[in-house]
C-alpha cells in the first residue's frame, strides 16, 4: 500500500492539505507563547495580581494536557476531518470570547475552552498527514508540519508585543479570528473525508483517570518550581498525579481499546525516537528560555527586542527542517540528526561563554546554529518514532507523543530554572555576596548552558545507534 502511494504521489494533490493542517497547528501553537508578553497588561486591565493573571496561561496548558489523550478516540469515532474542523471552530469561537472577557475569571474559563479545542489539533493533524503522505516522502513533506512547532515560540511573543503596542491585549485573541476562518474554509476544501469508526470504543476507565494524571503532574511540577518541592500543595498534586499515572499505565497496557498506545514503547526505534525528541526538546526549550532572559537581564534589552534577536533562529530552523526532511527521505534519520545535535551542541557551548559585552554578531551566530540544529533534529526523530510503529496505531501514538512532550516541557522548565537559581545562589555564597550580582548571574547562565551542552552530547551519542531507516 505504501509503495502504491509513492507511485501515485503528487505534490499538487497533497500540498494544499498539508499546508491546511500546518495553518491549523500554527494557530494553536502560537497561543501557547503569545500570552507571556500580555500578562502585565492583563494584570492592569483586570486589576489583579500577577499570580492570578498567570492562570490564563496555566489553565490553557492544563486543558491541553487533559484533552490530548482523548484526541485519538475523537478522530476515530467522528472522523479525523470532522474532529479537526470542529476543534478549529471551537478554538476560534473561544478566542472571540477571550477577547470579550470582562473579568480575569471569565478569561480563565474561556482559555480552558480554548485549550480543550487546541489540544486536539496537533495530534490529529500529524495523524492525518501520516495517512496522506507516502512513506518515501514523509521527511520532506512532514517538514511543513514541523514549521509551526519551530516558528511559533519565536513569532508568538513578537506578534503579541507588536499587537499590544499598536492596539490592546484584546488583539492577541482577535488575531485568531481571520486565521481560524481561513483555516476552516481550507479544511472543508482540501482535507479528504475519513470514514469514522462507529464501533470505536472509549476506554472509559482511562478517560476517568486522565484528568488526574497529566494535568495534576504538570500543575504539581509548576507549583514545585514556583513555591518549593516540599510544599503541601506541590506534594499533594504530584503524589495524586504519580499514583494516577501508574494506574493509567496499567489500564492502557491491559485494555483492548487504549486511549494511548503505551505498548508501542516495546518497539525499540519508537522508544529511541521519543527519547531523542525529549532530549532535544529539553535543550532547545531551555535555550529559548535563558537566551531571552540573558538579553533582557544582562544586556538590558526589552522583551520585544530580545524576541527580535531570536528571529534568526526561526529562519535557520526553517532551513534546517527543509534540509533535514530531504536527508531523512534520501539517506535516513541519523544522517540528519547527527549533524543537528552537533550544531546545537556548538551553539549551547558558545552561549556558555557569553558575558556582559559579548558582540551581538556572536549571539546571532549562536542563535542561527541553534536553529539549524533544532530544524535538523526535531521533526526527523518524531517521524522516526512514528514510522517505526504500525500505521494503524498512528491515531493513538500522536497523542502519546504530544502529551509526553507537555510533561517533559514542564519538567524541564522547572528543573532548569531551579538549577539556574541554585547555581547563582551558590556562587553568591562562595563570593560572600549579599544579593545577586552580575558575575553570579553570568555564572548561573554559564553552568546552565554547559548542562544543556552535555545533554545534547548525550543525544548525539544515542543518535549514533539509530537505525538508518525504519520501514
Automatic annotation (TrEMBL):
GO MF annotations, alphabetized: transmembrane transporter activity
Keyword Translocase tagged: no
Subcellular location: Cell membrane
Keyword field: Cell membrane, Membrane, Transmembrane, Transmembrane helix, Transport
Keyword Membrane: yes
GO cellular component, one term: plasma membrane
Main localization (coarse): membrane
Domain Major facilitator superfamily (MFS) profile: 17-471
Topological type in the membrane: Multi-pass membrane protein
Transmembrane feature ranges: 12-35, 55-76, 83-102, 108-130, 142-164, 170-190, 202-222, 234-253, 274-295, 307-328, 335-354, 360-382, 403-424, 444-466
Family assignment from sequence similarity: Belongs to the major facilitator superfamily. EmrB family.
Alphabetical list of NCBIfam families matching this protein: efflux_EmrB
PANTHER family, alphabetized: MAJOR FACILITATOR SUPERFAMILY MULTIDRUG TRANSPORTER MFSC (PTHR42718)
Name of this chain's protein: MFS transporter
Naturally occurring in which organism (per UniProt): Pullulanibacillus pueri
Amino acid at each position: 500500500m505504501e509503495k502504491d502511494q509513492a507511485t501515485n504521489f503528487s505534490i499538487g494533490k497533497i500540498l494544499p492539505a498539508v499546508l491546511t493542517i500546518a495553518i491549523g497547528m500554527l494557530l494553536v501553537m502560537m497561543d501557547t507563547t503569545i500570552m507571556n508578553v500580555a500578562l502585565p497588561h492583563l494584570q492592569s486591565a483586570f486589576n489583579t495580581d500577577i499570580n492570578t493573571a498567570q492562570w490564563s496561561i496555566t489553565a490553557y496548558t492544563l486543558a491541553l494536557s487533559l484533552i490530548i489523550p482523548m484526541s485519538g478516540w475523537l478522530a476515530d469515532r467522528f472522523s479525523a476531518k470532522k474532529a479537526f474542523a470542529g476543534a478549529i471552530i471551537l478554538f476560534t469561537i473561544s478566542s472571540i470570547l477571550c477577547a470579550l472577557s470582562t473579568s480575569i475569571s471569565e478569561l480563565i474559563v474561556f482559555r480552558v475552552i480554548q485549550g480543550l479545542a487546541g489540544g486536539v489539533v496537533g495530534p490529529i493533524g500529524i495523524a492525518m498527514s501520516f495517512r496522506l503522505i507516502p512513506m518515501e516522502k514523509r521527511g520532506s513533506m512532514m517538514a511543513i508540519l514541523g514549521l509551526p512547532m519551530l516558528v511559533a515560540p519565536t513569532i508568538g511573543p513578537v506578534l503579541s508585543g507588536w499587537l499590544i503596542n499598536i492596539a490592546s491585549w484584546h488583539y492577541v485573541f482577535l488575531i485568531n479570528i481571520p486565521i481560524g476562518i481561513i483555516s476552516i474554509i481550507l479544511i472543508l476544501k482540501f482535507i479528504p473525508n475519513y470514514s469514522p469508526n462507529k464501533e470505536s470504543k472509549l476506554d472509559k476507565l482511562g478517560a476517568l483517570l486522565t484528568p488526574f494524571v497529566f494535568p495534576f503532574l504538570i500543575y504539581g511540577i509548576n507549583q514545585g518550581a514556583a513555591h518549593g518541592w516540599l510544599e503541601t500543595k506541590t506534594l499533594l498534586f504530584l503524589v495524586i498525579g504519580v499514583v494516577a499515572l501508574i494506574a493509567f499505565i496499567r489500564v492502557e497496557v491491559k485494555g483492548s481499546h487504549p486511549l494511548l498506545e503505551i505498548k508501542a514503547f516495546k518497539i525499540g526505534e519508537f522508544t529511541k525516537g521519543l527519547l531523542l525528541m525529549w532530549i532535544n526538546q529539553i535543550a532547545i526549550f531551555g535555550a529559548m528560555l535563558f537566551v531571552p532572559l540573558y538579553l533582557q537581564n544582562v544586556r538590558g534589552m526589552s522583551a520585544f527586542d530580545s524576541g527580535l534577536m531570536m528571529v534568526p533562529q526561526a529562519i535557520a530552523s526553517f532551513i534546517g527542517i527543509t534540509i533535514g526532511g530531504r536527508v531523512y527521505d534520501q539517506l535516513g534519520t541519523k544522517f540528519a540528526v547527527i549533524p543537528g545535535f552537533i550544531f546545537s551542541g556548538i551553539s549551547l557551548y558558545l552561549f556558555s561563554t557569553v558575558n556582559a559585552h559579548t558582540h551581538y554578531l556572536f549571539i546571532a551566530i549562536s542563535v542561527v546554529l541553534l536553529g539549524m540544529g533544532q530544524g535538523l533534529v526535531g521533526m526527523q526523530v518524531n517521524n522516526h518514532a512514528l514510522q517505526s510503529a504500525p500505521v494503524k496505531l498512528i491515531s493513538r501514538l500522536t497523542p502519546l507523543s504530544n502529551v509526553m512532550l507537555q510533561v517533559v516541557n514542564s519538567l524541564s522548565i522547572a528543573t532548569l530554572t531551579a538549577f539556574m537559581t541554585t547555581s547563582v545562589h551558590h556562587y553568591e555564597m562562595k563570593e560572600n555576596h549579599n544579593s545577586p550580582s552580575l558575575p553570579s548571574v553570568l555564572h548561573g547562565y554559564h553552568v546552565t548552558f554547559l548542562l544543556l551542552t552535555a545533554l545534547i552530547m548525550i543525544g548525539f551519542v544515542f543518535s549514533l545507534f539509530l537505525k538508518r531507516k525504519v520501514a
